[in-house]
Amino acid sequence: MKYKLVLAVGHEQITDQIKKFDEVEVVEENGDIEIIEEVMEFVDADFAVINTMLSAEKSLHFAQRAQQMQVKVICIVADFKMDRKLILSLAGCGVTAFVQIDELYRIPECLEAYPEQFDYQLLQDHAEEGETAGAKSAVQKRKTTVAVLGIMPRIGTTTHALSLAKYLNDRGYKTAYIELNGSDYIRQLAATYTAAEEDAAAGKVTYEGLDMYYDPGSVPKALRLPYLFYIYDFGDIHGLRSREQITWLEKDIKVLVAGTKPNEIDQFQYAVKQVYNQNTKYLFNFCSQAEQHDVKVRMGSRTDATYFASWLPDPFATVDENVYLAEMMADALAKAGDVTESVKESKAQKSGFWRRKR
Predict the structure, then answer these.
(1) Of residues 81, 83, 111, 79, the one with CA closest to residue 4
(2) 13, 249, 263, 357: least surrounded by Cβ within 10 Å?
(3) Three-point CA angle 303, 304, 308, nearest 5°
(4) CA atoms within 13 A on the CB side of 237
(5) Which top-level group of life is the source organism from (predicted)?
């Protein structure tokens, strides 16, 4: 479904990002909130998106007028904590949806499920976050986001995303896996293994100590929890929607899962054109030792960002030769600092814990 929007965001890059969302049709745009307020009377729009950083006073006046016209408003703010008073004032004018400037990817969520009431707990959560040292805690500063994307379906993207999350989590770096590929793999896992614990309210499944989020709507809350690493599984590049392309770009580390078979080479060349110059790491799956030298030669200037995965049929299996994961994450682990290695539970055989057989 397409939603008709009027925009007053005052920045070409923000406008371009919003226009890329599949759900959006921009019917009018202007960098001046007052002009958009006047235009609203003459255009058919479902939503208005305004950048409150342009003018707090104009934003409040706009919100009051939009409420009279029954137009839903999404406000972009710099920071929930810093803009608390303005947000409360806008909420008093009927605005219930706010996104931070660094979380524009949440706009489609607001379009599809515009809140009936403003969630005041949102401000409380951010106020509590800022109580220590007046800013982010040391743990918050060390958080690292990792995006994993495959060149094509069935290339091993989910296997390696989960394996990476498990690898980090088992070594004491509290990690969350986030499913953004629409596969419903995590909920199927919960339905298959009795050892998997599902928390439907949190939109997650916990298995072998790893928290795996299957509901994209639960991600904002997960980001406020004390994880050191967030592993985002984007599936294959051909399934990326415009909003996910933006969230991919925002991640600290980007991993492209590739292969070396003839059909995979073509797909890899296509994918590289999309992600090159985006500080991407390249992880080759199903690549024999004999092929690895030739692959590195072909990778040229990207050799140092090229890695070869161990054979991994089970993402939850303990693999002794996880050298490629350690190398690939070396800088991020140094940033995360020392942690106490978690106590590893002995892994039960899954075959004895099935609820049902496939």
Answers:
(1) 111
(2) 357
(3) 75
(4) 20
(5) Bacteria
Q: Which CATH architecture has domain 144-342?
A: 3-Layer(aba) Sandwich (3.40)
CA–CA distance, 223 with 42 (Å, rounded to integer): 40
C-beta separation of 258 from 284 below 8 A = yes
> What is the layout of strands, in order, in the sheet containing 47-51?
24-29, 3-8, 47-51, 72-77, 97-100
Q: Which residues contact 261 (CB under 8 A, 6 or more apart)?
A: 286
What HEC string does 282-342 produce? EEECCCCHHHHHHHHHHHHHHHHHEEECCCCCCCCCCCCCCHHHHHHCHHHHHHHCCCCCC
Topology (CATH level 3) of domain 3-118 = Rossmann fold (3.40.50)
CA distance 319 to 315: 9
Nearest Cα to 202, choosing from 192, 213, 191?
213
CA distance 292 to 306: 10
Whether residue 255 contacts residue 162, with contact meaning beta carbons closer than 8 Å, is answered with no
pLDDT of residue 125: 64
Indicate the residue type of 295.
V
Q: Which residue has the tokens 């958080």?
A: 143
pLDDT band (50, 70, 90) for residue 208? very high
Delimit the domains of the chain by residue range. 3-118, 144-342
